Amino acid sequence: MSVIKSIHLINFQSHTDSKLEFHDGVNVITGPSDQGKSSIIRALRWVLYNQPKGGDIIHHGQNKCSVSVKLDNGTEVTRVRQNNSNKYIIITDGNKAEYSGVSNEVLRIVQAVLHISPVFLDKDQKPEINIAKQLDPPFLLSGSGSVRAKAIGTIVGVHFIDAASRNVSSNIKEINSKLNYKAEELQSIDEQLDKYSNLERQKIQIDKANKTYEEVENKIKRLKALNLLKKRLSSHNKAIDELDVTLAKTKQVSSALTLIQQAENYGHRLSSLNSISTKLYACNQGIKRSLTFLEKASFVDKGFKKTKMAQNTLEDLNSTIKAKSKLDAVNKEMLASQKIIEKTNELPTNLEKLQQVIFLNDKLATFKQLYSKLSAYNRELKSIEQKLFDKGVEKEITRKINSIELKVEENKKVKEVYAEIRTIESRRNKGAKYLLNLSHKHKLLVNDLNRLLNSINHCPLCEQDIPDSQKNKILSKWKEV
């Protein structure tokens, strides 16, 4: 085992540059008070245990201090502290290494090189057994029984049983606390579930209410459709009345068309008569010229010829006279036709309306079919309205609709409750799984304790044999927990 051969202090508290060489055996440092003897111990603790902390260890007026500890195997450990640096310098077998970033704990590499570190008894007790402070009582003699037991257990290597026991106790306490919390939570959940014990019955009632509500909605939709058909029927009836008026105005269209055709024929005949009248006038003029010519003619033969021509012309004249009489009759008919034409001045407009009437007549058959269906719907609608108002169903329907709306709201709340119940059941299942997991861990810890007890035949404190009955008693105690 290595021992400390020397210590070198530079600017550490009252020491500006002090080096002490140690010899084998006991070394004693003597001198008056306040001369730096305690500072040497503080310097050792600063290197070995990182105590004391802070920057008060630096000599007044300086910004850097260092303490070097050299072992008999040539290893040297130097602790350096300045304003912006805090590090260890380790020289082993001529190799130099620097380690910065020193925290509250001593670096493991430093403990490994020096083979010195605080002894861990539990999380609150870490005594420094290598260096005794001034006025400290002897180690273990002044400690309590539990501290001595922990120290001896650590020395002989059975301290892990105590640590395992503490961990088991802590785990059991935590498990019991969680079990109590989960039990209370489970009881609270059960109490909440009791509030919804009648959900199935309410669900049946809500389903019935929803069905009734749907039926009422369907009837209301049908009623609206019938009212719409009624309005359409009214508009169609109005259109049919207008068509009847139009048809009444156009009843004489056929006779008017016949008169127009006759008038056109009379017009053609009148044109022919006018042409004949023109020819007749020309013939009369020719006869006059012929008579004058006969009076002056010197040749009889020519006169006979002209006479023959005159006779022919006279026959034509007779025919013309007859045609004139017919023309007079035609003129009378033309006057009658003119009166008819005057009465039919609005005929083009009537013809357009006639075309519209023909188009509307095509739809009239469709309207009549719709009218018959609509009449049936109207009769059915009146029957429904009569039944509704005769039996006072309207108020009942209104009441049921209000009730259904309330039940729909309740249905929404029930769905929210179902969602909350599912969440609670999920949490309940997770809690059950967690309890099973804790129970499994508890069994594992008990098994570990059983193996530890079986591996130890005597008590580490009193070094007496532990009988199997005592082991079984300990195990049964932990199993009951």
From TrEMBL:
InterPro entries per UniProt? P-loop_NTPase (IPR027417), Rad50/SbcC_AAA (IPR038729)
* Domain Rad50/SbcC-type AAA: from-to ranges: 6-225
Entry keyword tRNA processing: no
Determine if Calcium is one of this entry's keywords: no
Q: Name one GO biological process term.
A: double-strand break repair
Pfam families on file: AAA_23
Q: Could you give a GO molecular-function term held by this entry?
A: ATP hydrolysis activity
Q: Which residues fall in a coiled-coil region?
A: 182-226
| Keywords (A to Z) from UniProt | Coiled coil
Subunit field text: Heterodimer of SbcC and SbcD.
Q: Which family does it belong to?
A: Belongs to the SMC family. SbcC subfamily.
Q: What is this protein called?
A: Nuclease SbcCD subunit C
